[in-house]
Amino acid sequence: MSAGGYMALVLAWLVPGLGHVLLGERARGVIFAVTIHGLFAAGMLIAGVRAINPPEQQIWTYTQFLTGWPMLVANSVEKSQMAKFRQSMETLQRDGVEMPDGQFLTRPPVDDDSQTAIADRIRFGKEAIKRYPLLSNHPKVHDIGAVYCGIAGMLNLLVMFDVLLRITGSTREKPEAKSQNGGAAK
């Protein structure tokens, strides 16, 4: 395999579909690029940045990295968003939630079961989610988005194998030849 072949294989990972374009198969490369980027974008549209690096299902993180540049960009965005989220959580825990009138809503005690305390906790939660939307958690939606992004990566892995087979010149043996060779060996 030539150095250009290795470069096509690396670029097939980095930019889905580009490996086929470099090998002269433009239509195939464009189809792969549109499909893989579309799947990844659908996952991001469904679940947003929370689809990236799901903490309870690490296998999807590994498969998402197979998409190349979309995951590299999404991963850096997710890291910065999570850093802001952690900072917001620290502020929320320290200061409470600022109300529209400039007052702060302090976290109500959890051990108080009075109607007023329950209403305060509900109000606190609503205001916290309004101010910090990343606090809202919809795990099923995030799981679906993570799966879409992960499937895009697995599809790109298959595309990379196809590029590798085309670079090495490997061909599939015809079924007739296989049965003839198998019959001669007996």
Give an overview in words.
- The protein has 186 residues and is mainly alpha-helical.
- The chain has one domain (3-170).
- Helix content is 70%, strand content 2%.
- The chain has eight helices and two strands; from the N terminus they run αααααββααα.
- The chain has helices at 3-14, 18-22, 26-47, 58-64, 69-95, 115-131, 139-168, 175-185; strands at residues 97-98, 104-105.
- The chain has a two-stranded antiparallel sheet.
- Strand 1 (97-98) and strand 2 form a beta hairpin.
- Helix 3 runs antiparallel to helix 7 (139-168) and helix 4 (58-64) packs across helix 7.
- The radius of gyration is 25 Å and the shape is elongated.
- The model has no long low-confidence stretch (mean pLDDT 81).
Keywords:
186 residues, mainly alpha, elongated
Q: Compute the number of helices.
A: 8
Shape: elongated
The helicity comes to over 70%
Number of E-type strands = 2
Structural class: mainly alpha
Main β-sheet, spatial strand arrangement: 1-2
What is the domain total for the residues? 1
Provide mean pLDDT, rounded.
Answer: 81
- Would you identify the regions where 5 or more consecutive residues have pLDDT less than 50? none
What is the CA-atom radius of gyration, in angstroms? 25 Å
What's the order of the H and E elements?
Answer: HHHHHEEHHH
Q: Biggest sheet, open or closed, and with what strands and sense?
A: 2 strands, antiparallel
